[in-house]
Structure formats: structure tokens, C-alpha cells
Amino acid sequence: MTNFHIRYGAEVAEALRDARPVVALESTIVSHGLPRPENLRVARQIEATVRAAGAVPATIGMVGGALVVGLDDAQLTRLATVDGVVKLSVRDLAVAAAAGADGATTVAATSAVAAAAGIGVFATGGLGGVHREASQTFDESADLTTLARTPIAVVCAGVKSILDVGATLERLETLGVGVVGYRTRRFPGFYLTDGGFDLDWSIESPEQVADVLAARAQHGVHAGALIVANPLPADEQLDPALHDRTLADGLARLERDGITGKAVTPYLLAHFHSATEGASLTVNVRIILRNADLAARIAVAAAARRTDDPA
Ligand code: PSU
Ligand code: MN
Fold first, then answer.
1. What is the pLDDT of residues 257-293, one digit of tens each?
2. pTM higher than 0.85, yes or no?
3. Along the chain (311 residues), what's the average pLDDT of each consecutive run of 10 residues?
4. In a mutational test of the pocket of ligand 1, which residue from 265, 273, 280 has the highest number of ligand atoms less than 8 Å from its CB?
5. CA-to-CA distance for 74 and 43, rounded, in angstroms?
């Protein structure tokens, strides 16, 4: 490889040049978060959802050492189907590039790359956060510390319910990451509509989120992320009793199998998908598609705002 500069998909490059709405999407969800072969189908559906709402999707990942913003279909297919795709956090990006690796970017890495590329809105399923037992293991996702220094709006369904949700909210407060509910004052729990904790702010429309982003940019005071927590409607959530059983069983297996580090989240997600016989997968896909739609509408509102008021 001759240089390591970020590569842009043609459509994304054009949209960024013209200040048209773009939504960043992560690839770890595709390579490590969803089972094959649904993962590729879902990855394409996420992009189609962003397009349908009027924005350009920019799925981010690494192909043969090249960091790409706006993977094309062949690149997306490669990350969804080949073995040995590495889960990349921010700290891994340069090492993996130098090694010529295929890699999928986490929320942390995707946010950091998107912000560097000038993309202001990102859609994912659920954030990483503070793991249960973190007081012994110190296992806290780099998603949190990265969002503290990355100016991007992340649309998600809260943090994964496999985590310590209360501790994660405390860390987000300490780290100065903004958290608003989308039409709710309860923090969602990913598979579950209600994660069990209150929020200070509820935002009612994509335009209002765009106002927040404009205020943050014009103040020039707060350089961290804004989490837009978008809960599933209660009738679409995973059955809470099934959720609790599956989680207890998954945590016990984690311990039994000695799983640690970055393998923890993919292991638990895979356990949910198999133990619920696909019920959690259906819910997971709904979460991502709803977030992709909202993120696109926020990006459209933000772009319209820039056109109205270039200052
Ligand atoms: N949300 C999902 N599925 C996923 C993830 C999040 O619905 O696969 C991924 C994201 O890429 C997130 C990562 O950044 O899991 C967190 O991993 P860790 O806990 O190792 O930081
Ligand atoms: Mn971890």
C-alpha cells in the first residue's frame, strides 16, 4: 500500500463535498454482532433504510489495511463473510492498517473515524459500556472514553442490557457525554424498552436534535458526543422474562468458558441469538433499522439547518 490516508466511497465523498446528509454506520455489528448469513442481508438493509430517509450511508471498516469510509458492496460482503476479520477499536486502527488486515470498526472506532471524516451523525444498535463485575475486571468499553472526546451524535437503543446500565450512565456523566432520550425520559435497555433509569432530557424531533448539534458547534465549548437514545416500542421488545433468563445463563457460561476482553460482547450476543432461537436477532435488527432511520432524519435536518444558516 502506498499510503494510509482514509479512502472514501465515491458517493460518500461527493455527499460530503456538497454538504449533503451522511450517516456513519459501524461494521463490528456486521462481522461480530450478527450471525451469518443474516449479517450481510441486514447490513444492506441498514444502508437501504438510511437512503430511504434521504441520507447517504457511510459504513466504515478496514479492507486489506485500507481504512474506508463508505464501503462498497464487495467490501461489505468481504467483512461480512470472510474469516479472520479483526474487531478494531480506536487503538487498533493504525496497527491493523500497517498489518494490511481486514477489520471491523466498533462504536469507538467508527465514531472517531466518522468525526475525522466530517460526518456528524452515526447509527448503531447499542453502545458498549461498563460490564457487570467491572469493579473486579476493569472491563469498560472504549466506546465511553472515545465518545467523551468525539463530536458526533450517536443514535442507539441505549447500552446493551448485558452491561451494568446504571454504572454506564454514571460513567457517561463523569465523562461529559450528553445523553438525551428520543421522545422518552427513560434510558432504553437495548433488547428492552426500559433500561431502568431516568434521563434528564427528552427530545421530540430530528429538528430538535439538529438544534442541539448546532448549539454545541456554535458554542465551541463541548467537544464530546451526544447520545440519542431511541427505545423500541414496548410491543417490539424481547420478552423481559426470556431476556433475564438468557442473560443469567449467558453470564454463567462466560465465566465457565473463561471469556474475557473484547470477546465478551460478541460471545454474549451470539448466546442471545442462539438461546432465544432468533427472537433476539429479530429484535436486534429492528433496533438497528429504527436507529438508522432516525439518524438519517437527524442528518437531513442538520443539513437543512446548515443551508438555512451557513454561519
Ligand atoms: N451493538 C450491537 N451489536 C454489536 C455492538 C454493539 O447491537 O455488535 C458492538 C459495537 O461495535 C460496540 C462493541 O462498539 O460491540 C462493544 O464491544 P466492547 O464491549 O468489547 O467494547
Ligand atoms: Mn471490553
1. 999 988 998 999 999 999 999 999 999 999 999 999 9
2. yes
3. 91 98 97 94 98 98 98 98 97 98 98 98 96 91 97 95 93 98 97 96 98 96 95 96 95 93 91 94 96 98 82 52
4. 265
5. 12
C-alpha cell at 85: 476479520
Q: Is any ligand 1 atom within 6 A of the Cβ of residue 20?
A: no
Cα(260) to centroid(ligand 2), Å: 8
Distance 163 CA to ligand 1 centre (A): 11
3-state helix, strand, coil in the chain (%, to 5): 50, 20, 30
**What tens digit of pLDDT does each residue of 59-94 get?**
999 999 999 999 999 999 999 999 999 999 999 999
Å from CA of 107 to ligand 1 middle = 6
Nearest alpha carbon, ligand 1 atom 16: 128
In angstroms, rounded to a whole number, what is the distance separating the alpha carbons of residues 147 and 196? 22
Query: In the chain, at which residue ranges do the beta strands (DSSP E only) sit?
Result: 7-8, 22-25, 56-63, 66-69, 86-88, 103-105, 121-123, 153-156, 178-182, 186-189, 192-198, 202-203, 226-229
128 CA closest ligand 1 atom index: 16
